[in-house]
Specification:
There is one protein chain. By secondary structure, the chain is α+β, with helices and mostly antiparallel strands. The chain has a single domain, classed as Glutaredoxin. It is about 25% helix and about 25% strand. The protein is built from 4 helices and 6 strands. It has a 6-stranded mixed sheet with strand order 1-3-2-4-5-6. Helix 2 links the parallel strand 2 and strand 3. Helix 2 packs across helix 3. The longest helix has 12 residues. The radius of gyration is 15 Å and the shape is globular. It starts with 5 loop residues before the first strand and ends in an 8-residue tail after the last strand.
Length: about 140
């Protein structure tokens, strides 16, 4: 992890079209999220989710970052998927073992032609855990 809370999940030299597309997606994981018990144990469940996500993305060029709080505390473990110029997604009700689901969602997002995460193929945790879909700024009209 670098000083900005960023993990590089990829390795140099494995360039492909998918790798380039994956590099355009960022997974943001709330590192301060607690598990369903509300435990103050350390490491926090959000940190464990970030680590699980990093492991699941190993070998891919998906950018994984952590933030202190996504403000979704009632839905516990939370993460967001971002892609420049596309809708952004916030998910809650995740578990510390949801990293593979986040990576699957990121890959679907990276390779979608319309900039949306397709419903078909989306892991169940990302279907029922959807909190918000936020439009890109350039899409907003006055």
């Amino acid at each position: 992890m670098d000083h900005n809370g960023s993990f590089s999940a990829g390795t140099a030299g494995n360039a492909s079209d998918d790798d380039d597309a994956f590099a355009g997606v960022t997974i943001i994981v709330c590192s301060s999220c607690r598990d369903e018990t509300g435990s103050d144990a350390h490491p926090r469940a959000g940190t464990l989710l970030a680590e699980d996500t990093r492991r699941a993305a190993s070998g891919d060029k998906i950018n994984i970052r952590t933030v202190e709080c996504l403000g979704n505390c009632k839905r516990r473990l939370s993460a967001a998927l971002l892609r420049d110029g596309c809708w952004s997604y916030v998910f809650g009700d995740l578990t510390a073992a949801s990293g593979a689901d986040l990576v699957t969602g990121a890959k679907l997002f990276a390779t979608s032609s319309d900039g949306l995460i397709p419903w078909r193929g989306r892991p169940d945790s990302l279907k029922r855990g959807l909190v918000a879909r936020i439009p890109p700024l350039d899409m907003l009209k006055d």
